[in-house]
Write a structure and sequence with these properties.
single chain; mainly alpha; 6 helices; 0% strand; elongated
């Protein structure tokens, strides 16, 4: 019985790694589509979100089976419960990649008002946070989880840079203010992706310590 339980836990870890890779792909494709103004890739990223949603359902089903069939207690129960929380954040990251792709399609008809610099950097850093937060869960690495939490400040700083630059642009270029506002929204979605990755890391901390900051990203 214990061997089966351990196999199911291993399966859960593998599924979480796979879902992490899926949302990383969604982020990478979303930013590539945006930078290249590639409408077809943006559309593909929107469609891909359904696969992310399906993976969330598969993991949720596995977690519920573990709870009902194995009746875990103490740390194991906390770990499985945290996995359920984490996939909600990962699914929302996929949603934000979809949101970014929808704005990419909307903006594809004209050149960008400014060279994209900080937004691709935000995407790269957010991807790194997603990867390391999932890795922290799989390896039960508390130090890595806490490093991810601290790293969120870098994404926040990049968002501030994007917002400030575009707000200044709007002040002197009101005729193209709509696009500048949309670019701020795209940057905001990447900032929220970082928040969700941080949230995943906080659930890792809780699974290991029983302590969690009492907030969730909506």
């Amino acid at each position: 019985m214990r061997t089966r339980y351990e196999n199911q836990l291993a399966q859960l870890n593998e599924a979480l790694i796979e879902m992490g890779k899926m949302v990383e792909k969604a982020i990478e494709d979303a930013i590539k589509a945006m930078v290249d103004q590639d409408v077809e890739l943006a559309k593909s990223t929107i469609e891909y979100d359904e696969e992310v949603d399906n993976m969330e359902k598969e993991i949720e089903s596995l977690c519920l089976k573990l709870i009902l069939q194995q009746q875990p207690v103490a740390r194991d129960l906390r770990l499985i419960s945290c996995a359920l929380k984490m996939i909600t954040d990962l699914e929302r990251i996929g949603d934000h990649a979809e949101d970014i792709s929808e704005l990419t399609i909307l903006l594809a008809g004209e050149a960008y008002v400014k060279e994209l610099e900080h937004i691709p950097q935000m995407a790269e850093e957010a991807c790194k946070m997603v990867n390391q937060s999932v890795e922290a869960f799989v390896k039960m690495d508390l130090e890595l989880a806490r490093a991810v939490m601290k790293y969120d400040d870098k994404v926040d700083d990049l968002f501030d840079s994007v917002r400030n630059e575009l707000v200044e642009y709007i002040k002197t270029n009101s005729e193209r203010s709509d696009q500048a506002v949309d670019l701020i929204m795209i940057a905001k979605y990447f900032e929220r992706i970082g928040d969700h990755a941080k949230n995943v890391a906080e659930w890792v901390e809780f699974s290991l310590t029983g302590s969690h900051k009492d907030h969730m990203i909506i």
